[in-house]
Write a structure and sequence with these properties.
Blueprint lengths: L1 H15 L10 H76 L1 H21 L3 H4 L3 H14 L6 H17 L3 E9 L5 E9 L3 E4 L2 E5 L6 E3 L6 H12 L15 H8 L3 H7 L1 H36 L9 H11 L5 H19 L3 H33 L4 H58 L1
Helix pairs in contact: 1-2, 3-5, 3-6, 5-6, 10-13, 10-14, 11-12, 11-14, 12-14, 13-14
Family: Belongs to the exbB/tolQ family.
InterPro entries: ExbB/TolQ_transport, MotA/TolQ/ExbB-rel, MotA_ExbB_proton_chnl
Protein name: Energy transducer TonB
């Protein structure tokens, strides 16, 4: 009963709120308020319905106006569509007429567009653009304009293409001197005089320059070619009107770029690593020994020849010391004298042939060390191939080239060492032969006197 009372009170509050009635005191007042609220709501609904019916004519008028506007727009759309189709037919007819009237002229302008684009690309990579900057911009704009629209090029634009081509051909046969900004190898930018040789090379202060791609700027090559090429660059800068020798790159820098990448002699030697250094050290030692032996044997041979012309034995040469044996033992028999002379010759032979064996050993060991370095380098190359695969031929070529350097060094040392050993060995044998010959003569003379 209590819950029902609360529910009725809540409903009464809901309907009584629009009326702003006072809170009911009892159930009769609550019932009366509910009646009053329902009556007021009914009146509001009737008023709204009356207003809607009163505006029905106005809404109908708005609907009729909207329908009329739709019909007008549909008619306008049909007219515009018809006009569009007409314009399309007229445009196609005009394009056909334009194509027929242009004839081969259209093909000519197509070729002009292609030539302008190609020429702009060529001028961007030309040394002439350093002296005459901004030449390629106008041609690039012309090629882009002719490609993106159907507008024809003017006479002035056609002449600009012809002028750019003629200028490039003319400047390709000139040696020009001018000043421009150069980026040095250390990154510093300096304005200095440069010499341009046609469209092939550009030098400054005896250094070759390269064109920075996509710009009209130049920079010194970080790695210059060998001295004989830079010497020709200096001669070109210092030359007057007389012809001078110059290392010209007809490819415009491609061959020069490959040339500077080639390792020089020191870098080749460095590729031999430890084995290469050992081979070079042995070669230097062998060369020093050969030089000492060559000087010694030359002086010794000269003294022996002078001793042959003298009857008095001197102690400053091997032959004199051998000849002194007969004066030391004048009364011995022939057999004893022969033994004494043989002993004296054997005593002189080590002095004559000293260190020749070491030169021969170097001539044999050097190519073996070179082979060792080659095998080691090939092992490293195959290990790199195992790790990185064979996708990069430069990796294999570089490793094989490095491996073969030691073989070259070994042969470079072995060949002269072999020749030096043969020469020095022949000289030493000639001196020993003279000693033996003179000893035989002394024995024959003593034997004759004995008889």
């Amino acid at each position: 009963m209590l819950k029902l009372k609360h529910l009725i009170a809540a409903v009464g509050l809901v309907f009584a709120m629009p009326l702003a009635a006072q809170e009911p005191v009892n159930l009769d007042e609550l019932l009366q308020q509910l009646k009053d609220g329902k009556f007021a709501q009914t009146q509001d609904n009737q008023a709204r319905e009356a207003r809607f019916q009163a505006q029905a004519a106005e809404q109908a008028q708005i609907l009729r106006e909207a329908i009329a506007q739709r019909d007008r727009l549909e008619q306008l759309s049909a007219e515009l569509e018809s006009q569009f189709e007409t314009n399309e037919r007229d445009l196609a007819a005009l394009e056909d007429a334009l194509t027929q009237r242009m004839g081969s002229l259209k093909e000519l302008f197509g070729v002009l567009q292609q030539v302008a684009g190609d020429t702009a690309s060529t001028l961007q990579n030309s040394y002439v653009s350093v002296e005459f900057p901004g030449r390629s911009d106008a041609l690039s704009d012309l090629a882009q304009k002719m490609g993106s629209s159907s507008k024809l090029a003017s006479i002035e634009e056609i002449e600009s293409v012809w002028f750019a081509l003629q200028q490039e051909m003319t400047e390709s046969g000139k040696v020009s001197n001018f000043e421009t900004e150069v980026t040095l190898a250390n990154g510093e930018k300096v304005t200095k005089p440069v010499v341009r040789v046609g469209t092939f090379n550009m030098v400054a202060d005896g250094q070759y320059l390269e064109l920075v791609p996509g710009t009209d700027a130049v920079a010194e090559l970080i790695r210059q070619p060998s001295g004989r090429f830079t010497a020709t660059a200096e001669a070109l800068e210092q030359g007057d009107e007389q012809p001078v020798k110059f290392g010209l790159d007809p490819t415009g820098g491609s061959i020069l770029g490959l040339l500077v990448q080639a390792p020089n002699l020191k870098e080749r030697i460095d590729q031999g690593d430890t084995v290469g250094y050992i081979i070079i050290a042995l070669g230097i030692i062998g060369l020093l020994i050969a030089l000492e032996r060559f000087v010694t044997l030359t002086l010794m041979g000269g003294k022996v020849k002078r001793q042959l012309k003298q009857s008095e034995a001197k102690q400053d040469n091997p032959l004199g010391r051998v000849m002194a044996v007969q004066d030391k033992y004048p009364q011995v028999d022939t057999e004893t004298l022969e033994l004494k002379l043989s002993e004296a010759i054997l005593r002189e032979v080590p002095k004559i042939t000293r260190n020749l064996t070491f030169i021969k050993i170097i001539s044999v060991v050097a190519p073996l060390l070179g082979l060792l370095g080659t095998v080691t380098g090939m092992i490293n190359t195959f290990q790199a191939i195992t790790l990185f695969g064979t996708g990069d031929p430069k990796l294999m070529a570089g490793g094989i080239s490095q491996a073969l350097v030691t073989t070259v060094l070994g042969l470079v040392v072995a060949i002269p060492m072999t020749l030096l050993f043969a020469t020095l060995n022949t000289r030493s044998k000639n001196i020993v032969h003279v000693l033996q010959e003179q000893a035989s003569g002394i024995i024959a003379e003593r034997s004759e006197r004995g008889h």
